[in-house]
Write a structure and sequence with these properties.
The complex is a heterodimer of chains A (111) and B (116). Chain A has strands at 4-5, 10-14, 19-25, 32-38, 45-51, 56-58, 62-67, 72-77, 86-93, 100-101, 105-110. Chain A has 111 residues and is mostly beta strands. In chain A, the strands form two sheets. In chain A, strands 2, 4, 5, 9, 10 and 11 form a six-stranded mixed beta sheet that branches. A five-stranded antiparallel beta sheet of chain A has the order 1-3-8-7-6, with no helix packed on it. Chain B is 0% helix and 47% strand. Chain B has strands at residues 5-7, 10-13, 19-24, 31-37, 44-50, 53-56, 65-68, 75-79, 88-95, 106-107, 111-115. The chains are: A mainly beta (111), B mainly beta (116). At the A-B interface, strand 4, strand 5 and strand 9 of A face strand 5 and strand 10 of B.
Chain lengths: 111, 116
């Protein structure tokens, strides 16, 4: 069946360091992937997405890498700030399919 | 642009009572979703509407959950009767008509339901 999971449930980084959040997916038919950030008491907020015809996509301070060979997705946050503290979810879908979320990784930024 | 609006923000009820949640999507978003998010987990889709029609309700517990979007804009999700395991955050999301594969979902801040 379809599943999206995260390697680490929690991640603690020092302010100013780079953060890497990982995600594994099992459905090889998935061709669209999204990272969401969820702060306490709020709904998930879109960060960045990537389609399967790409290996890398960059946004402002964030980069998403997709390795289709091993079905792995990662989110890199440069110069992590206290405001980046949140739970990060990866989600996957394919044409006509549902958006399926992973369990989430809680990022904690130490000042 | 205004985001997805949901109310109430919090609700506490006893088991076997009924409860309703309301959602107003982003203007122009034809697709509306209700998700259930249990503490510590990712959101799980309950139902998807395209305008006022149901696209997917395969994971909606239809014996107790119901949802409607009569005029293709606002939506309500109802639980009757509630069970303890229904305690969760209920998130509403909306997107452009092409759906999740072509445009990201925009979420509201959810309604946190506690069933005692």
């Amino acid at each position: 069946g379809e599943s999206v999971g995260l390697h680490l449930p929690t991640l603690s980084v020092q302010e100013g360091d780079n953060s890497i959040i990982n995600c594994a997916y099992s459905n090889s038919a998935s061709d669209y992937f999204i990272w969401y950030k969820q702060e306490s008491g709020k709904g998930p907020q879109f960060i960045i997405d990537i389609r399967s015809n790409m290996d890398k996509r960059q946004g402002q301070r964030v980069t998403v890498l997709l390795n289709k060979t091993v079905k792995h997705l990662s989110l890199q946050i440069a110069a992590t700030q206290p405001g980046d503290s949140a739970v990060y979810f990866c989600a996957e879908t394919n044409q006509g399919g549902k958006l399926i979320f992973g369990q989430g990784t809680e990022l904690s930024v130490k000042p | 642009e205004a985001g997805v609006a949901q109310s109430p923000r919090y609700k506490i009820i006893e088991k076997r009572q009924s409860v309703a949640f309301w959602c107003n999507p982003i203007s122009g978003h034809a697709t509306l979703y209700w998700y259930q998010q249990i503490l510590g987990q990712g959101p799980k889709l309950l139902i998807q509407f395209q305008n006022n029609g149901v696209v997917d309700d395969s994971q909606l517990p239809k014996d107790r959950f119901s949802a409607e979007r009569l005029k293709g804009v606002d939506s309500t999700l109802k639980i009757q009767p509630a069970k303890l395991e229904d305690s969760a955050v209920y998130l509403c999301a909306s997107s452009q008509p092409l759906g999740v594969h072509n445009s990201p979902l925009h979420f509201g801040n959810g309604t946190r339901l506690t069933v005692t």
